[in-house]
Write a structure and sequence with these properties.
Blueprint (H helix, E strand, L loop, with lengths): L1 E9 L4 E10 L9 E7 L5 E7 L2 E5 L7 E6 L5 E4 L9 E4 L8 H6 L4 E4 L5 E5 L10 E10 L2 E11 L4 E12 L1 E3 L9 E7 L1 E3 L2 E8 L21 E8 L4 E7 L1 H5 L5 E9 L2 H4 L27
């Protein structure tokens, strides 16, 4: 878990100097490019400011600050909405997909937007910023909770993997957005598209996601999860230039792994008939009667 420790030194003009110390428990030290801070004054008006990774100065305006949302800046594939509607309305979604969803997958998940996988996102919500007198230093520890989670996906082949030259995947039914103030994922779903790599008799991918829809951290599972469809897709290009697509129901795996985990499917096959070069055209002309020879013009000939 990443945390951001802030120390605020207020002055008479409604501003603060903020020092940021990034730390992580049980993992590699993070190195974000900085943080975005959205402050809300007593009237609910937002001000969005950007800080470098080691902190900086914020100007809260004439009405001061009541609450704050903070998130990391390394979010090229994430877009925020709802900022002007208050801190509990701010939500993040990822950018539109770099390619359309496979038709077979889209038919299983009608109405779901096709999105890219998001960047890693951490966020924190401070509902009530403590008051501080002029030039007083107020320590304000902030835990940046993860809003994005990683799934390791593995497609195992039992036959014909040597005929695969390239692969890409998609996952339908995933959360389309996440609320920054508490990490909740609303009910709307999306299809995520991503690239894969070839491994030993398998296609693998590491897929970032907001998790599954209708998830509230710390609350019991909602019944709507049980009726949701989650479908894993794989498209492979074969040595003969053809493509083959697989669609696999993975609802059982995702219902028990709502925020990251391992998804594995097995038994995939590339049959001999899939990778053959026979086009179905019989070159034997014995049955063709009344053959006519036609001279095709070459170059400038007529």
């Amino acid at each position: 878990m990443v945390s951001c420790r802030e120390e605020l030194c207020y002055n008479h003009f409604g501003s603060a100097d903020i020092d940021i110390e990034w730390s992580v428990s049980g993992g590699q030290q993070p190195s974000p490019s900085g943080a975005t801070v959205i402050t809300y004054d007593n009237n609910g008006q937002p001000v969005e400011m950007f800080l470098p990774s080691d902190g900086g100065s914020l100007n809260f305006g004439d009405n001061g600050v009541q609450s704050m949302l903070i998130y990391n800046n390394d979010t090229e594939k994430i877009t925020l909405f709802g900022i002007s509607d208050g801190p509990r309305s701010v939500h993040a979604t990822s950018t539109p997909g770099y390619r359309p969803a496979p038709q077979t997958l889209a038919s299983r998940h009608p109405g779901e937007a096709t999105l890219n996988t998001p960047d890693m996102l951490y966020a924190a919500y401070i509902e009530a910023v403590p008051d501080a007198d002029r030039h007083e230093i107020a320590a304000l520890p902030v835990d940046m909770k993860p809003m994005v989670f990683s799934y390791t996906i593995r497609y195992n082949f039992e036959y014909g993997f040597e005929r695969v030259t390239n692969a890409r995947g998609a996952l339908g039914g995933m959360a389309a957005r996440v609320m920054l103030y508490n990490g909740e994922t609303p009910d709307d779903a999306a299809i995520l598209v991503y690239d894969c790599r070839l491994d030993n008799n398998a296609v693998v991918a590491s897929v970032l996601s907001f998790g599954i829809p209708s998830f509230v951290p710390g609350e019991a599972d909602r019944g709507t999860r049980e009726n949701r469809a989650y479908t894993l897709n794989l498209e492979v290009t074969l040595t003969n230039g053809k493509t083959k697509s697989f669609d696999i129901d993975v609802a059982g795996q995702l219902q028990t792994q709502p925020r990251g985990g391992n998804i594995t499917v097995s038994g995939l096959r590339i049959e001999d008939s899939d990778s053959g070069t026979d086009s179905g055209f019989d070159p034997d002309l014995d049955d063709w009667n009344n053959n006519v020879d036609i001279d095709l013009p070459v170059g400038g000939q007529k």
